Inverse folding.
């Protein structure tokens, strides 16, 4: 334990006097300690964490019979020191959403709390005092349900059509009637909706741009157009039945999400897979990272107006998909991992196929990079745009290539090593500047690093069993947290298990969610034609944000 | 190209020496060979739609590759992905904005009937786009491969040539046996109970159990 953390812990114990405090084993629980602090103290605690260089990794809630428990996870960039702080919100006979369940907002300390708290507000009905705009985040604004409360027992059959027709009616009556949208000639300000149907938003994202002339004054991402109630769905499913959900969260880089779920349940059960399984897992994950970055590269350059790179990148991506299809049988939504093992072993023809692919791809990547990076038009459209500072990144909880583009070598594969990453030789890629160009550089070089990892692995996949046989169907009672470095950043899973066959609560801390929430800090000052450039450089996948 | 020759021949009731095409038949023939899809994706299936348009699968071979970002210029809507309720008004608006004649393909399980995200009492999605707008062709899969998408569009082409483009709307509530399963919604447990054992034996699971 580092001195910063022990000082923090000492301060917490002596000054805040938590109601409950327990040190936990980071190997199983994923956190250093859990502390239950009085609600009045949480802002002071968060301020202290912020000053010590921690970011708010996730904020969520768990519904219990007598109270709603707010769970905050703080973590660092340079080393994994995840700390869990909790606050109880007593129910006291109040109703969700009526304002009686109250907690102080962390928004003044961490900007990332904005979306986290809106999400808790809409799913649990907790009101945060001091929050600047507490309204629905993922569900339509006219919703009246609080679905993640245990008292919510589902909607009656046929309500999907009824609700949809109601929403169509509301839409005809006008979006956001309470918002000032009139164009006044005097100040030349106006609002423009980018999305939700727009070719360049990589999904169904709506960005409400506040413009003066062609300059962006303010931007507000509006999300939830792809909300697929995955967290509620996982609560009513058995643990193995959640595998397909992991393939469909971030369908572009699904292997990392498989990895997180496998790690979570394996740590909770106290089992570890064989070295062969670990090697194959890392191999497929890194190949998937390449295909994910290739998709980003193709579509990003398409956003910027270059059609040809799209075809070239997709051509190489198809080759990666062919290789992964040999092992998984799927092209996109992989659910290949199993608890303690894999669905099936890799076929004999897979390794030769990878061997043939790697040199070819390395050459292609070099060519593409040269063509793109030396293009003046490209440089002018990305350099200096959407600049993210380290302080903003800390405040918004930005992770992944976006963070590494600001020069911070934060990569969970190195800082919180899992699987066999400590045995592998690769560099954490960083770039300076924090602009769209730096993000491009990081992602392209990350593909090179992934190639390096794959090259090491194909030479030394050990023999071994690919399954551990029958495991118990339930997960021991307790709380667990696992995190991996996905192609987009830190993906964390927080599980509260009550020891039965299905999870009591699962929180999916998705990287794009926090990355996208920093958009209001990136866009102001941009020209409207550059909005797409900045947006594309964040590499978002909407169903992963909306979950 | 036998298949295409077959397709290009409109269904005439009695082949004679002189075949008189109806004007509509000639129009349909033109429409069927240049279906312009709307660039519009909702979830995973949209990536396969993109892959379909890229180098390997190349929708352009069939004249379907001219994806238009504006609904005013498109005549084929490919509903690719899960339809969340928040998105429904937008899809409806896009459909209404398209000029007739317009065709709809439901790509994948979600757009067809809710797919993997359908469970008793779900609160977030619309179980099938055919409850809101008429659908011509359904393509199964989760997600369907690009080949399946191409097969779906070719199927639509046949329908367009034959003039059978009246899409179907499904009844609002389908009698579905899957929905009759009892929902396994949990009740809230007491936090005091949950915390009670400070986890002494819970750390060591017994693999032999079960």
């Amino acid at each position: 334990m580092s001195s910063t953390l022990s000082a923090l812990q000492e301060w917490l114990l002596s000054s805040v006097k938590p109601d409950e405090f327990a040190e936990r084993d980071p190997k199983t629980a994923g956190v250093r300690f859990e502390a239950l602090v009085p609600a009045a103290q949480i802002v002071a605690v968060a301020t202290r964490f912020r000053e010590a260089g921690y970011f708010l990794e996730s904020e969520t809630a768990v519904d219990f019979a007598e109270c709603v428990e707010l769970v905050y996870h703080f973590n660092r960039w340079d080393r994994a020191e995840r700390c869990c702080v909790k606050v109880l919100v007593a129910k006291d006979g109040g109703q969700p959403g009526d304002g009686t369940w109250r907690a102080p907002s962390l928004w003044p300390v961490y900007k990332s709390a904005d979306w986290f708290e809106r999400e808790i507000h809409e799913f649990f009905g907790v009101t945060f005092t001091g929050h600047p705009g507490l309204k629905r985040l993922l569900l339509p604004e006219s919703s009246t349900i609080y679905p993640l409360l245990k008292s919510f027992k589902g909607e009656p059959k046929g309500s999907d059509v009824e609700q949809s027709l109601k929403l169509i009616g509301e839409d005809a009556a006008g979006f956001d009637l309470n918002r000032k949208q009139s164009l006044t000639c005097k100040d030349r300000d106006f609002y423009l909706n980018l999305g939700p149907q727009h070719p360049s938003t990589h999904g169904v994202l709506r960005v409400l741009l506040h413009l003066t002339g062609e300059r962006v004054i303010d931007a507000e991402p509006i999300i939830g157009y792809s909300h697929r109630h995955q967290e509620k769905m996982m609560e009513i499913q058995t643990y193995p039945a959640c595998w397909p959900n992991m393939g469909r969260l971030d369908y572009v880089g699904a292997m990392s999400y498989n990895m997180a779920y496998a790690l979570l349940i394996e740590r909770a059960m106290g089992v570890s897979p064989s070295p062969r399984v670990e090697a194959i897992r890392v191999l497929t994950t890194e190949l998937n990272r390449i295909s994910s970055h290739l998709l980003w590269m193709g579509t990003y350059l398409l956003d910027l107006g270059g059609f040809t790179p799209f075809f070239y990148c997709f051509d190489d991506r198809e080759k990666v998909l062919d290789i992964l299809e040999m092992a998984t049988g799927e092209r996109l939504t992989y659910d290949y991992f199993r608890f303690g093992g894999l669905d099936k072993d890799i076929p004999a023809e897979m390794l030769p196929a990878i061997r043939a692919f790697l040199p070819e791809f390395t050459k292609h990547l070099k060519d593409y990079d040269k063509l793109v990076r030396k293009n003046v038009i490209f440089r002018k459209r990305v350099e200096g745009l959407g600049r993210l500072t380290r302080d903003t990144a800390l405040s918004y909880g930005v992770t992944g290539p976006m963070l590494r583009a600001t020069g911070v070598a934060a990569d969970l594969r190195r800082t919180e090593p899992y699987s066999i990453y400590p045995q592998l030789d690769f560099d954490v890629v960083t770039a300076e500047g924090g602009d769209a160009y730096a993000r491009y550089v990081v992602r392209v070089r990350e593909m090179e690093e992934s190639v390096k990892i794959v090259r090491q692995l194909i030479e030394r996949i050990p023999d071994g069993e690919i399954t551990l046989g029958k495991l118990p169907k339930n997960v021991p009672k307790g709380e667990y947290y696992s995190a991996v470095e996905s192609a987009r950043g830190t993906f964390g899973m927080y599980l509260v298990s009550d020891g039965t066959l299905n999870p009591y609560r699962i929180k999916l801390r998705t990287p794009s969610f926090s990355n996208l929430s920093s958009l209001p800090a990136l866009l102001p000052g941009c020209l409207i034609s550059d909005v797409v450039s900045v947006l594309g450089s964040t590499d978002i996948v909407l169903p992963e944000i909306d979950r | 190209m036998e298949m295409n020759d077959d397709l290009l021949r409109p269904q005439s009731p009695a082949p004679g020496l002189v075949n008189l095409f109806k004007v509509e038949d000639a129009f349909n023939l033109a429409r069927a060979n240049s279906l312009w899809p709307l660039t519009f994706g909702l979830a995973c299936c949209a990536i396969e739609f993109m892959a379909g348009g890229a180098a390997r699968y190349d929708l352009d071979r069939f004249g379907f590759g001219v994806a238009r970002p504006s609904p005013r210029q498109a005549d084929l809507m490919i509903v690719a992905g899960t339809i969340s309720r928040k998105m429904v008004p937008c899809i409806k608006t896009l459909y209404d904005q398209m000029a007739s004649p317009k065709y709809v393909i439901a790509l994948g399980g979600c757009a067809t009937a809710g797919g993997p995200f359908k469970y008793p009492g779900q609160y977030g999605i619309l179980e099938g786009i055919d409850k809101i707008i008429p659908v011509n062709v359904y393509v199964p899969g989760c997600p369907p491969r690009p080949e399946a998408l191409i097969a779906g569009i070719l199927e639509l082409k046949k329908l367009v040539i034959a003039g059978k483009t009246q899409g179907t709307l499904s009844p609002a509530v389908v009698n579905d046996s899957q929905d009759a399963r009892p929902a396994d919604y949990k009740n809230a447990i007491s936090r005091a109970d949950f915390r009670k054992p400070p986890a002494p034996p819970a750390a060591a699971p017994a693999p032999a159990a079960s």
User: Anything to note?
Assistant: Residues 199-206 of chain B have pLDDT under 50 and may be disordered. The helical segments of chain B are 2-8, 23-32, 44-53, 88-97, 108-113, 146-162, 191-195. The longest strand of chain B covers residues 76-80.
